[in-house]
Amino acid sequence: MRGYDPNAGMVHLVNPSFGLLHTDDHFMKDIHEDSNQGARAVQAARKGPFRNETGRSRVMSRSAHVLIRKRRKQIEITVRRAATEQELHALHAKLGMHFRTSSSCIVFLVERGQRKSLGPLGDMNLLKLMELIRQRLMAQRGTIGILLVDDHHGGAMHNPRIHRGRFTRGHYKGDSINHIGDKNDKYIQ
Question: Among positive and negative, which fits the CA dihedral 39, 115, 161, 55?
Answer without folding.
Answer: positive
